[in-house]
């Protein structure tokens, strides 16, 4: 699904590098490491908005460097860490924007697009929010809606930048649980950056750990190693 | 669904009210003209030569310009507000009008003949509008703070005005008067023969606008999200800026810098239609903007005596309190 081939990541100076790593579909990968090690930079690189300083990244067999924005948007969805909501923008319209990679030049939604939105809303149990304004719903609900937009985008790879940062303990657990379920059920590859190493460990997510300028992959979450 | 009906209803009502005010605007003035005479002057036999000339040569172009200018400025304002993600943006606030004004001042006050015909005027206003728009765009990419950005726009406006003042000081009385009148904003500078050109440019700008509905909807989410949803941001920004310059440059060239319409109407439209879908906002801004300027002009005709009150007096009178309301009610 994703292959990292001998990459070095950073803006001008190398923040960290990695040897060959293969990530597969149906799983949620936890991207962990201390502040400033380059988690966000890594996500930006994976989204194709930053070119790796060395090596190459392939998503579904295609080298990211060779794709334009439109092509990338059909392969990769990004869930930003925060969305404050926009007045007069309904949840439904917001999710509709997630279909942009597939709509025509005027952005009109076909029936198939609307069905996709309904389907995702059903899975994430946010159907009752569809007609609401994006500023009227709670932070937790908005977080779910953001994830829904990424699912609506119908990509193999979903990148999540600290999706639980603004949630309380119970909602964090619920969110992780549903992400794992969705990744399995819909065969998605998800990579989420997180500071909540305890939760990642409890769900024993496969781990991408940035430490000492190296990206280390381990199949099981290694809490001891991260903490040391 | 419920909201969609609401949008359609609001637009339908305005579509009925708009022609009513259009006819009303033709009727009122220093001489009141009856509906029958208005109708006959436009379509039927001429009953009175003076009235016919008055309607055809003065009032009809003026009312048409009110519609086109109101729609253009409102659409341009909406574009700027979405592009800069700021409800207080607009061609006037961002200095785009000032850019157009400077170029018009150059053509009117220096007498460089290259600019000294009506097409030269439009062209120079467009160039001025586009240059300032592009400059603000560059500044905006480096300056995320919205209040700071507006301040930069206002400062840029004053900076450009300083140059205009310099030109004014050095110019002869005749052209200075012409420019001063122009700068107060007026719907009356347009003759019947210019209407086709103005209408054509407006229809062109309005039509192109629909091709930027999707980029505008995506830009609501911010640039990063828009890119991740497949948008070519650079091209979209440039295109949106071009249409903005076209519409506000067109208006400024013919009517002078008209204040507040481009700032207030997009906000009113959003509040009335309760949507962020730019297809509806585009139609809404065109209709409400046109209606607003028509109503302003009817008011002007009703309160004016011998000397006509400049259009900016009215737009500012309605617009300024509204902006104060916006600022105090909403966090920026």
Provide structural commentary.
The complex is a heterodimer of chains A (228) and B (332). Chain A has helices spanning 39-46, 69-73, 91-97, 111-123, 139-152, 169-185, 197-202, 223-227, and strands spanning 2-9, 16-17, 21-23, 27-32, 54-59, 62-63, 76-79, 157-161, 189-193, 207-211, 214-218. With 228 residues, chain A is an alpha/beta fold. Chain A has a 6-stranded mixed sheet with strand order 7-8-9-4-10-11, sandwiched between helices. In chain A, a hairpin with a 2-residue loop joins strand 10 and strand 11. The model of chain A has no long low-confidence stretch (mean pLDDT 92). Chain B has 332 residues and is mainly alpha-helical. Chain B has one domain (2-329): Orthogonal Bundle (ABC transporter involved in vitamin B12 uptake, BtuC). Helix content of chain B is 77%, strand content 0%. Chain B contains 14 helices and no strands. Chain B has helices at 2-27, 35-42, 49-83, 96-110, 118-142, 146-169, 173-183, 195-210, 213-219, 223-228, 233-255, 261-273, 278-303, 311-329. Chain B is globular. Chain B starts with a helix and ends with a helix. The model of chain B has no long low-confidence stretch (mean pLDDT 88).
């Amino acid at each position: 699904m994703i292959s990292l081939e001998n990459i070095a990541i950073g803006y001008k100076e190398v923040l960290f590098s990695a040897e060959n790593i293969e990530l597969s579909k149906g799983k949620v990968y936890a991207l962990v490491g201390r502040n400033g090690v380059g988690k966000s930079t890594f996500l930006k690189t994976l989204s194709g908005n930053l070119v790796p300083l060395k090596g190459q990244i392939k998503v579904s067999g295609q080298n990211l460097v060779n794709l334009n924005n439109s092509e990338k948007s059909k392969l990769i969805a990004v869930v930003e860490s925060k969305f404050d909501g926009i007045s007069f923008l309904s949840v439904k319209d917001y999710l509709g924007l997630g279909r942009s990679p597939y709509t025509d030049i005027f952005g009109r939604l076909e029936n198939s697009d609307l069905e996709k939105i309904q389907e995702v809303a059903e899975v994430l149990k946010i159907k009752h929010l569809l007609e609401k304004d994006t500023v009227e719903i709670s932070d937790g609900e908005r977080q779910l809606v953001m994830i829904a937009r990424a699912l609506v985008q119908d990509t193999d790879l979903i990148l999540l930048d600290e999706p639980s940062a603004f949630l309380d303990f119970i909602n964090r657990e619920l969110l992780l649980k549903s992400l794992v379920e969705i990744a399995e059920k819909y065969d998605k590859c998800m990579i989420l950056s997180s500071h909540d190493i305890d939760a990642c460990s409890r769900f024993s997510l496969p781990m991408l750990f940035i430490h000492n300028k190296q990206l280390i992959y381990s199949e099981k979450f290694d809490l001891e190693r991260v903490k040391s | 669904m419920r909201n969609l009906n609401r949008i359609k209803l609001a637009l339908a009502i305005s579509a009925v009210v708009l022609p009513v005010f259009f006819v009303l605007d033709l009727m009122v003035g220093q001489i009141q003209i009856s509906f029958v005479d208005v109708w006959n002057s436009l379509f039927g036999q001429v009953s009175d030569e003076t009235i016919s000339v008055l309607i055809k040569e003065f009032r009809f172009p003026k009312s048409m310009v009110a519609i086109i200018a109101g729609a253009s400025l409102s659409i341009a304002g909406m574009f700027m507000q979405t592009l800069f993600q700021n409800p207080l943006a607009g061609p006037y606030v961002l200095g785009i009008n000032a850019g157009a004004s400077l170029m018009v001042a150059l053509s009117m006050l220096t007498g460089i003949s290259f600019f000294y015909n009506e097409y030269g005027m439009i062209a120079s206003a467009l160039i001025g509008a586009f240059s300032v728009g592009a400059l603000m765009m560059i500044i905006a990419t480096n300056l995320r703070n919205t209040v700071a950005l507006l301040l930069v726009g206002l400062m840029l406006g004053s900076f450009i005005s300083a140059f205009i003042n310099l030109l004014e000081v050095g110019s002869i009385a005749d052209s200075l008067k012409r420019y001063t009148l122009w700068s107060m904003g007026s719907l009356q500078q347009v003759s019947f023969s210019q209407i086709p050109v103005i209408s054509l440019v407006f229809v062109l700008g309005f039509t192109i606008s629909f091709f930027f509905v999707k980029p505008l909807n995506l830009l609501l989410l911010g640039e990063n999200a828009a890119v991740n949803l497949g948008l070519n941001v650079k091209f979209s920004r440039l295109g949106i800026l071009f249409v903005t310059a076209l519409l506000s440059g067109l208006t400024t060239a013919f009517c002078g810098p008209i204040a507040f319409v481009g700032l207030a109407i997009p906000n009113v439209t959003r509040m009335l239609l309760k949507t962020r879908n730019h297809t509806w906002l585009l139609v809404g801004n065109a209709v409400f903007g046109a209606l607003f300027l028509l109503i302003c002009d009817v008011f002007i005709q009703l309160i004016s005596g011998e000397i006509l009150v400049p259009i900016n007096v009215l737009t500012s009178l309605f617009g300024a309190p509204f902006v104060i309301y916006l600022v105090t009610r909403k966090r920026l």
